[in-house]
Amino acid sequence: MSEARGVKVVIINTQYVETDATSFKSVVQNLTGKDSKVAHEPSSSKQHGRRKQVAAGFGNGVSGTSDGRSVMSRGMSFKDLDRLLMDLPPFDELYRLFRD
User: Fold this and answer.
1) What's the DSSP call for residue 7?
2) What is the Cα–Cα distance from 12 to 76, expressed in whole angstroms?
3) In terms of Cα–Cα distance, which of 49, 15, 19 is closest to 36?
4) 82/99 Cα distance (integer angstroms)
5) Nearest Cα to 63, choosing from 54, 78, 55, 94?
6) Residue-wise burial string across 56-94, b where 16 or more C-beta atoms lie within 10 A, e elsewhere
7) What is the rounded average pLDDT for all residues in the chain?
8) How far apart are CA 86 and CA 82, in angstroms?
9) Which of 34, 35, 67, 81 has a CA 20 to 30 Å removed from the CA of 87?
10) Could you read off the pLDDT of 64-90 as tens digits, one per residue?
11) Residue 17: its pLDDT value, please?
């Protein structure tokens, strides 16, 4: 016959954390108690320049193309995205602008 087992109760402490893509792994490892050493991947000079730009605070996730169009780029944090969306004009105003 089987033995009756007790109920296992697990208490989970939730915590709100904001991070960017470059430090995500380190933050997760820090929260889980794992080794937080991050192996650096070999990067091209273009990627290295982008990392310097983001680290210096100049990267806002939006960049321009040679023909003047704005495009989204990788490495944009949720805080930057929220700021970008909050700076947009109301949708009815955008509709009126693009309708004509």
Assistant:
1) P
2) 29
3) 19
4) 26
5) 54
6) eeebebeeeeeeeeeeeeeebbeebeeeeeeeeeeeeee
7) 69
8) 6
9) 67
10) 555 555 555 667 777 887 888 888 888
11) 80
**Which pairs from 79-85 meet CB under 8 Å and 24+ separation?**
79/18, 84/60
- Side chain identity, residue 54: V
Only one residue has tokens 């944009």, namely: 76
- Residue written as token pair 């730009």: 53
Residue 72 three-state SS: strand
pTM of the model: 0.26
16-45 pLDDT, tens digit each: 788 888 888 888 888 887 765 555 555 554
Strands 70-72 and 62-64: antiparallel
